[in-house]
Amino acid sequence: xxxxxxxxxxxxxxxxxxxxxxxxxxxxxxxxxxxxxxxxxxxxxxxxxxxxxxxxxxxxxxxxxxxxxxxxxxxxxxxxxxxxxxxxxxxxxxxxxxxxxxxxxxxxxxxxxxxxxxxxxxxxxxxxxxxxxxxxxxxxxxxxxxxxxxxxxxxxxxxxxxxxxxxxxxxxxxxxxxxxxxxxxxxxxxxxxxxxxxxxxxxxxxxxxxxxxxxxxxxxxxxxxxxxxxxxxxxxxxxxxxxxxxxxxxxxxxxxxxxxxxxxxxxxxxxxxxxxxxxxxxxxxxxxxxx
Length: 291
Prior knowledge:
It is a single chain. This protein is of the alpha+beta class. Strands 2-1-3-4 form a 4-stranded mixed sheet, covered by helices on one side. Helix content is 47%, strand content 6%. The protein has helices at 54-68, 91-96, 117-128, 136-166, 172-195, 206-219, 227-230, 236-246, 249-254, 276-279, 282-290, and strands at 46-50, 76-80, 104-107, 112-115.
């Protein structure tokens, strides 16, 4: 390993907002709001405040899966939170999620605020009685994998993704460290999926919905430009699972909600009605504005 820079931590750390990559001016070492602003409110009981990152996709995919089953109570408004401009630090958002991270959900039927993507999946699955087994043993296995994802994904996004794709400089040690862990995690999934069709068993569940936006996209070569680097094609069972889930219409809808990058037809900045998928993706809005 070669490392020409020798960083010695100071006795007391101080915050340098100019040093830390593209998010340096947004991230900060304190909590709480930076400015006053109320959150928008749509017509449905479920109000989602999010962005189409992997954590945001988890929730919109589940909501679209519920609607595909005819669960009318799962209708929702998805409001865009632009984390690059600090929407997550408004007083309105912090009231819903004191941790200032997307996604966050308000349920007008119960008055509940729900934050953390895994908690939102569990809340919705229990509220509507879908995508979570009722048998205690089967339920436990699904929850095992849901919590596995919640603990593992930060190594992929905040660890590997940050140092491989986003850090202002590339260093061998952190890239090696997090690559080792991400490949181990993919092997964990690959081995499980060699024995079961889905995570936790043979029924599609919130464990799959939570994991697919992170590791499904990764193993299909659609995350961080790292497919070749990670040799994703070698994880045959994981790729089979990822490809099968991608074919689900609800997944195809949910993954584009609150998305602000990529092809215009794959961006639905806000979702307030099922017709928005046909009428309000960015390619349609761009065409309308040009007329």
